[in-house]
Amino acid sequence: MTAIGFVTRTTNGGFRGQLKLLPVCADIDIVPNRDKSGDTQPDFRIFTQGLEVGAGRILGGGSRGADYISLSLSAPDLGVRKLCANLGRTAGLYGDGGFFLIWNPVD
């Protein structure tokens, strides 16, 4: 697993941290989508410097049964492909509110 960033949980139920790639290092906010009105809309919206660059969805964990957050980011600096990642707990690092952004390459 390749970690491409780190975030911590915020008081509003979202996350704040950094996306760290070779050409990109950006502060990001993952904000709950309070205006969600249907299953086709994301559970979270991702912003950097006031611009929306992606979305997140809460997905079921399959055999483990634990839900997780799947992220999809798209921006000119990332090229023509979307960047996909999952939020994964830091397993004791940085307290209970810490999560790594785990790169999830899409074929």
Question: Could you give the topology of this structure?
Answer:
Blueprint: E1 3-9, E2 15-20, E3 25-32, E4 44-48, E5 51-59, E6 68-73, E7 83-89, E8 98-103
Antiparallel strand pairs: 1-2, 1-8, 2-3, 3-4, 4-5, 5-6, 6-7, 7-8
Distance between the termini: 16 Å
Q: What structural class results from the helix and strand content?
A: mainly beta
Counted beta strands: 8
What's the helix count? Answer: 0
Largest sheet: 8 strands, antiparallel, barrel
- The helix fraction, in percent, is under 10%
The proportion of residues in beta strands is over 45%
How many structural domains can be distinguished in the coordinates? Answer: 1
**Spatial strand order of the main sheet:** 1-2-3-4-5-6-7-8
Q: Spans of 5+ residues with little confidence (pLDDT < 50)? A: none
What is the mean predicted local confidence, pLDDT? 86
SSE run: EEEEEEEE
Shape estimate: globular
- CA-based gyration radius: 13 Å
InterPro entries: DUF736
Pfam families: DUF736
Protein name: DUF736 family protein
